[in-house]
């Protein structure tokens, strides 16, 4: 029979071992919970960033598509009607103008004729896609770069350190995505502004075209026989056509990673100034 002191010692060792095991399990559980918490932060941040970016991209694509569709409408109907009517006039002379020439009108006529003959609108139809692709240039593959951010491991203390490092890296990537998202928003807003200015210009342009056509029915098609007001009406109508054609021609995006093209900015500014002047 084992002496009592040895029995008591064995009980004590077992008790200590049990306490130590429980403590180890508790620590291990804390590590697991901490790791799970970090992984959840990574997952939530990744999903939110990707969701916000995709929403921004869809909105921008919609705004750009509206502008591209309106450019088709301007080309197919408004400019074509102007070209058809203006082409009936004879002996037109803009020699006194510094801002408008018959060469510019001929350029509009060639453009409208080319569009009418081809009628595919390929250059306009692909612009939306090109603009969006240009605007997202530099984004690290949308949500794909989040894959592999979640950490699992047996040695939990090291796994936690790695997970925290991955969370830090993810936050850096998120800032990059936010910058691209801001770029998309600026592009969409610019396309919307181009659309709004062009729409208002087109309303005035169509009024001017109708007035020019009315004068042609009154006074004939010999511009040299027109009075000052009738000549001015032709000139104003041609100015509208030139301004709208410049808006249509202006490229939305530069080659530098989706930045708004400087020509587009300047054209919008000029068109807005002209619009303010005519009101």
Provide an overview of this structure:
- There is one protein chain.
- It is rod-shaped, with a radius of gyration of 34 Å.
- The termini are far apart.
- Helix 5 runs antiparallel to helix 6 (228-249), helix 5 packs across helix 7 (262-278) and helix 6 (228-249) packs antiparallel against helix 7.
- The model is unreliable at 4-20 and 140-145 (pLDDT under 50).
- 77% of the residues lie in helices and 0% in strands.
- The protein has helices at residues 4-86, 102-118, 122-125, 127-135, 156-219, 228-249, 262-278.
- With 279 residues, it is mostly helical.
- It has one domain (49-144, 172-278).
Main structural class: mainly alpha
Uncertain segments are 4-20, 140-145
User: Into which percentage range does the β-strand content fall?
Assistant: under 5%
Tell me the series of helices and strands, N- to C-terminal.
HHHHHHH
Cα shape: rod-shaped
Q: Count up the domains.
A: 1
Count of beta strands: 0
Distance between the termini: 114 Å
The largest sheet, given as strand count, sense and whether it forms a barrel, is: none
Number of helices: 7
pLDDT averaged over residues: 81
